[in-house]
Hints:
The structure holds three protein chains of three kinds. By secondary structure, chain B is an alpha/beta fold. Helices cover 40% and strands 31% of the residues of chain B. Chain B has three helices and four strands, in the order ββαβαβα. Chain B has a four-stranded mixed beta sheet with strand order 1-2-3-4, covered by helices on one side. In chain B, α1 (21-30) packs parallel to α2 (46-55). Chain C has a single domain (3-118), classed as Response regulator (Rossmann fold), CATH 3.40.50.2300. Chain C has helices spanning 11-23, 34-41, 60-68, 90-96, 108-118; strands at 3-7, 27-31, 48-52, 78-82, 100-103. In chain C, β3 (48-52), α3 (60-68) and β4 (78-82) form a beta-alpha-beta unit. Chain C is globular and about 35 Å long. In chain C, 58% of the residues are buried. Chains A and C meet through α1, α2, α3, α13 and α14 of A and α1, α3, α4 and α5 of C.
Amino acid sequence: xxxxxxxxxxxxxxxxxxxxxxxxxxxxxxxxxxxxxxxxxxxxxxxxxxxxxxxxxxxxxxxxxxxxxxxxxxxxxxxxxxxxxxxxxxxxxxxxxxxxxxxxxxxxxxxxxxxxxxxxxxxxxxxxxxxxxxxxxxxxxxxxxxxxxxxxxxxxxxxxxxxxxxxxxxxxxxxxxxxxxxxxxxxxxxxxxxxxxxxxxxxxxxxxxxxxxxxxxxxxxxxxxxxxxxxxxxxxxxxxxxxxxxxxxxxxxxxxxxxxxxxxxxxxxxxxxxxxxxxxxxxxxxxxxxxxxxxxxxxxxxxxxxxxxxxxxxxxxxxxxxxxxxxxxxxxxxxxxxxxxxxxxxxxxxxxxxxxxxxxxxxxxxxxxxxxxxxxxxxxxxxxxxxxxxxxxxxxxxxxxxxxxxxxxxxxxxxxxxxxxxxxxxxxxxxxxxxxxxxxxxxxxxxxxxxxxxxxxxxxxxxxxxxxxxxxxxxxxxxxxxxxxxxxxxxxxxxxxxxxxxxxxxxxxxxxxxxxxxxxxxxxxxxxxxxxxxxxxxxxxxxxxxxxxxxxxxxxxxxxxxxxxxxxxxxxxxxxxxxxxxxxxxxxxxxxxxxxxxxxxxxxxxxxxxxxxxxxxxxxxxxxxxxxxxxxxxxxxxxxxxxxxxxxxxxxxxxxxxxxxxxxxxxxxxxxxxxxxxxxxxxxxxxxxxxxxxxxxxxxxxxxxxxxxxxxxxxxxxxxxxxxxxxxxxxxxxxxxxxxxxxxxxxxxxxxxxxxxxxxxxxxxxxxxxxxxxxxxxxxxxxxxxxxxxxxxxxxxxxxxxxxxxxxxxxxxxxxxxxxxxxxxxxxxxxxxxxxxxxxxxxxxxxxxxxxxxxxxxxxxxxxxxxxxxxxxxxxxxxxxxxxxxxxxxxx
Amino acid sequence: xxxxxxxxxxxxxxxxxxxxxxxxxxxxxxxxxxxxxxxxxxxxxxxxxxxxxxxxxxxxxxxxxxxxxxxxxxxxx
Amino acid sequence: xxxxxxxxxxxxxxxxxxxxxxxxxxxxxxxxxxxxxxxxxxxxxxxxxxxxxxxxxxxxxxxxxxxxxxxxxxxxxxxxxxxxxxxxxxxxxxxxxxxxxxxxxxxxxxxxxxxxxxxxxxx
Lengths: 892, 77, 123
C-alpha cells in the first residue's frame, strides 16, 4: 500500500469519527450553526480526499452527503433526526468500504447497488418539500460588487448550436471578433420600474443563439405572479463591448458575460456510431496529418464523408477537421486532438487540453499565429500558457473596487506570473517590458498599464507574419479584403445558411413529407377510378375505342404513380441504427444493475425501413432485449458452472429479406425450458391437460406469446410491469409484422421479428360476402381455392377440408361476422375459399366470391368504429365507395 | 385593444404592454384549448411573455415580425 | 531549488501534492490552514503557493487577501485549488489575489505544467 493511500485511510477514519461526534452534539444542540459548518467541512474534505482515488461508490455517497450538508448549512434544508440517521448510515457504508480497501487495496464492484440507494436517499432529503427552492443562475453580489457566481466558458450550459452556426461563430472568434455568452437575469420587481427586459434583450444585435428560462416558483398557474419577473435570458452575440455596455447600462448588475473562445465552438454533434470509424482509416489520416500531407488528408476525409451518413458524430467531427484546416491551418494541436477523438467519439475537453504525447522535438512549421519559437516549446505548454495569460487578463479586468488594500500585492503577483510565463516559453526579452508596465501600474495604482501591455503583446502574436513581409500597399489591400470578407461572412454565417451550397442534402420538415405521402396516396386511389371509367365507357356508353384509350392512359399514370410511391418510400426510409443506438447504453445499465456481464453485438444497422415501422419497432425491441437480459442470460457464476464464458453474448441483427426487414435478437443464455412453460401454461389455464401431454416442445415455447403468460415468478422492474411477450406480439402485428421464437435449453434463445419495409400502401384482395365487399390484406393470403361442397367434412362439429394432404379448418365469413346467412357457392357448387396464415397455421375462410386486388391507403378507423374488432381499417376506392378491410387474425 | 379575445383565440395586435399580462393569464386558464395568434404582433412585454412560457398555448399564427418570431419559437417550443 | 507552500487542511491532499511536486524536483512545505500559512509565508519567501479554499480558522481567500496586503514580502504567484462545488468561487479567488484556479482532484500533468509556467522554468 502506498503512503498516500495509508494517509487517506488514517485521515478518513478521523473524519468519520469527527462526523459521528458532531452529529451526536447536534442532537443536543440542533440549531448550532457552528456545528453544522464544521460537519459540512468534514464531509467536504473527506469527499475531496476520496476523489483522489478511484473509489467511485465512496465518492458518490460522500458527494451526496456533502450536497445535503451544504443545504443544511445554508438553511435550505432543516436538520432532522431522519437526516442524521441517513447521514450516519452513509458514513457506516463509507467506513465498511475503507475496511475493504485496507484489506484488498480496492473496493469491489458489488457496492454499486448500496451506494446508489444511499445516494438516492440522501438526494431525496435534499429535495424534501420543506426545502426552499433556490432558482439557478441567479447572481448575488458581495460588498465588493463582485459576482459570487462566476463561471468560465467551460462550464457554460450546453447550447446545442447547429453545426453551421457553431462553425460561423468559430470563424468569427478566429477572426478576432469577441463572441460573448450573455446572461440577463432581470430583478423580480423590474416591471414596476417601467422596465421591459424582453424589449431590452431584443435590442442586442448580432445574436447567434438565444434561450429563455422561466424560474416559475408558483406551484399553480393561479398563483403565478405575473408582475414579478421570473425570466432569465441567455444568448450568444458578436456585438461589440461598447454597443452592449451602452444598451445594458441601466442593468449592469443583472448581466453576466463570458467571453467564449473559438475552441469552445469546436463541438461535433450527431449520432454516435457503435462501430465507429475504422481504426485503419484513423491511423491513415493521422499519418497524413503528421507528414503534413494536407491535401491527401482533406481528400481522404472528403471521400469518407461521401460514404458516411452526415448525421453521424464522426462525420460532424470530420467536417470540423476540414473547417479547422481551412480556418486555423496552423493550429495543429487542436486538429490532431480532434482527429484522435474520432476513436472515442467524444468531444475533447478543450478546457483541459492535454495533448497525447506530442513530441516536443517534432519540428512544427513555425506558426505565424503565435510567433514563439515553437520548436523548443511543446504545444501542450502553449495551451497552458494562453490559459494562464487569459486568467491574468481576467484578474486585471476585475472592477477596481474589488482590490482593496491588497490590490498592489495582487498586481505584483500578476506581474510575477506573467514574467514566469514568458520566461517559460522562452520570451525572456519581454521581461523588462512587463517589469516597466508593472512599475507604472503600481505608481498609478491601476491595472491598466499591464492590461495595455498584454493586449499589445497578444496582438503582436496574432498578427500574421506574412503581412509584415509584403510591401505597404499590398498590406493595405490585404487588410481591406480581409475586413470586407469578414463583414460579409458575419452576416451570412450567423444565419448558418452558407454551408448549404457545399452540401447536397436538404433538410425537410417531416410534416411536408407526410403531406406529400398522403397526396400520393390519394393519387394512387384516384388513378384506380380509371379502370371503372373504362368499364363504364364500354358497358354503359358502348364506346369500346374510348375504353381502350382510357386503359392505355391508365397504364402510363399507373407507372408514374408507382414510381412516385417508390421514391417517397425511399425518402421515408430510416436506418435501424436509429433504434439500435440506444442499446449499448441500455444493455450496459441493465446488466450492471443485474450484476450480469454482457457483450452486445449489433449487426446490420444500416438496414432501412419506413419511419413508421422503425418507430413501431422501438418498444417491442426494448422489451425483448430486457427480457433477454433479465431471463435469458445467466449470472456469471451460473454461466461458468454451465461451462460457458462468464460474459454472455447478446446479438441484435437486422437484415433485409426481399420486401421485409428481419430483426433477430439472439442470446446464448439458458434458453427456455419447454417443460416449465408447459407447466406454467397449464397452471394458468392456457392449455388443458390433454394439450399438456401432447404439445411439442416448439409449440410450448411459442406459448410465451400467449396472452396472460409471464414466466417470471417475481415480476422484476426490468422486464416491464408484468406484461408479457403477448404485448410484443400484438405491437408487431399491428404493423403487419410477425414474431417467432426458437430456443434450446442451456444454449440460448433466438427471437425474430419480420416486418414490412413500408406500410404506406397495402395491397388487398377484394372479396364478396353476403352482398357486401371487403378487403383482405394480400400478405396474409396464402392462396385462393374453390372447395367443392363434397370435399367439406365435419370433424368434431367443425368444418374442414383436406388441402394438399393437410387438414385445413374452414370458417365461414358470415359466421365470423355474426350473420346467419349461409355462404353462396358458384354454379359448380364450389365455395370460394381464402387460405390465410394466422399464427403460423393455415385457415380457410369461406366467402361468396373473389374479386380483383387493389392498392389502397389503409386508414385505421377512429372513434366508435375504432373499437370494432376484426377490422384493420378502411380505405377509399376509386369509385368513391368505402372498403372495410378485415383483419383475419382478430376475426378468428 | 392590444389583445383581442375571441371565442377560441387570443389575437395579439401590435405592441403588447405590461398591463395585458393578468387578463392573458386569466383567459388562458379559462380557455385551456385557446390558441394564440401573433400574426400582427410586433412585441410582447416580458410580463405577458412569461405567462405564455408558463402555459405554452397552441399557436394559431406566428408573428410576421421575423425577429419576434425567432424569439417566440425559442420561448414556446 | 524552488520552494512551494501547499496549504490545505486535508493531510491526504497535502501529501498528494507533495508527492507530485517532490517527484518533479521541488521542495515542499505544508500549512494546515490560512493562519499557519501566513506565519510561514511571512518568514520564508516561497516561490509559489498552492491554496485550498475551505479551511478552518482562516480560509484560502482570507489568507490571500492578508498575504497580498503585505508590502515587503515577495508576491509570488498563487494557484487556488477548489472542489467542483466551489466553481463559483473562481472570481472571488482572483479578486483575493490568486493567479490561477484549478479543480480538485488536480491532474498531475496539468499541475506541473502550470507550476513550471508560473515559476518561469524552461522545459
